[in-house]
What does this fold into?
Amino acid sequence: MVEKLRRIIEEILGRDEKFDLESGEFTERGHFSTNAAFVLAKKKGISPPEAAEELRRRIEIAAPAGFISRLRIAGPGFLNFWLAPAVFQAEAREIVRLGKNYGRVKIKGLAGRKIQLEFVSANPTGPLTLANGRGGFLGDVLGNVLEAAGARVEREYYVNDTGNQILTLGKSILAALGIIEHEETFYQGDYVKDWAERNKPLVKKMASSPEKLGERASADFLKDIKLVLKSTGVVFDRYTSEKKQVAAKKLPDQAMTLFKKKGLVYESEGAVWLKTTALGDDKDRVLVTKDGHPTYFLDDAGHYLETKKRGFAKKINILGPDHYGYVSRIQAAASIIGLKESEVIVTQAVRVMEDGVETKMSKRRGRFITFDELVEEVGPDVIRFFFLTVSPDTHLIFDLELAKKKANDNPVYYTQYAYVRARSVWEKAKKERMKLKNLKGDALKKTLSSLESPADRKLILYLSRFPELVALTAKDYGVHRFSRYAEELARAFHNFYERERVLGEPEETLFARLYLVQAALVVFKNLFDLLGLSAPEKM
RNA sequence: GUCCCCGUAGUUCAAUGGAUAGAACGAGAGACUUCUAAUCCCUUAAUGCAGGUUCGAUUCCUGCCGGGGGCACCA
It folds into this structure.
């Protein structure tokens, strides 16, 4: 119902003018309010009150009869709208009619568009870090949102399964068994030692080729990574192997050729450099070391080229905090390669807090807490929700104490409990549902007209926000909006549940409210799907 | 030193340049013979400092002060 109002104002203001249209509650500011008059005032060079007056006149003419029940100018030029009860009731019908598709919107510039979304992409040299997990959830939900907006999204995990770090992993394993001497740069988590112990005979056999050994181990680590991701509902369409799909296909070489063609390659101090400073980087970057090894950066350029060659004009890459310094160089490469729209999102670090103190190390093993350990401790829904409640720009402090609470204080359960309550009413009303199903057209309309209590309409108002939030998030990627919305929606439902009864009410009211419960179930389900949360039937 | 992110109730976080800055946890008070009280209702308290742009700044710009991260011929 917001959309209709938005379109009316858009028509008057002009398509490209930006304005706010906020949904409020049932206060003196109306169900919705807009600052559109300020925009009009600026455009026409008139005062905001004058503009507001003009806008009101034109909106009243443009709006369909019976849509707006009240329209008021407030403050320095805000317009407050009250929508007629019938509009709320119609929205409830729209939700039920669209079902799974409620919240699927067509966004210009996204609908039908092929987008590659790369995330996690952690090196398979050990378990996932918390930051990896954060990127995983962000990517997963962002992918859902972009798809809801009509885009065709490929979720890609780029696997660095070759090169220096794989060699180092192989050597680290040998060192763990004392076959070679330990060095500073080696990986030394318990997982290295564990793997080495479990595969002792193999390690001994492969002692002379550490690189092959590293590959072998990393394949195992990747398997574990995939398992953990799967257990948290993070899935990928494609695991792109650096070795097989990029290096073996000479894509880094092709990228190099491209760079040379643009005249941006030069040699200095025995190494080959790319002049990324020409594209906004703060220093030039090495493509080939003086020993003749291609750098990770060159391989990554090859990877970007591969993406482009497979028909993507848009790529979004989610990186962890350790890759901050990498952004401008990869953007420079993307630009040279001709990947038209390349975006990079960098997530900030994750820290775990318990009882007011930061727990840096895992208690059981003397190293950083890994993603799988935290998943095991609090469960996939909780970690997902907590990670997604905060903007990626802020350092995330994970409140382990709160996360472990199974009950009242935990916002995840609060949200799911609202769904469970709705479910419970719905299940109990088996007989009534049959009759409800037969209500159609005017009869249904008449029945729904008894949805007029504040709690009824407040619930519909919150339900109706969902599509607009999808549209907004597809543009600004602020997926944390949904966790917060989930809590608000749950609140609206709990409120409805406490104030109004469904079962046992007179027929008219019963059917109307049951219908509203159905609408709520639709939005909750769609929202949970989008967020990747489970929708429990019982708690 | 330089680049990036952050600085908002006691704490953890919200707020596409908009009106009276929202939640959660914490603290305090109240509500179950009724569809699951894992709930609802009420109270409490905040924009680091100094300028600037604007009808309007938590938001944009400059400087300062704090916290985190990046600055490899590693990935």
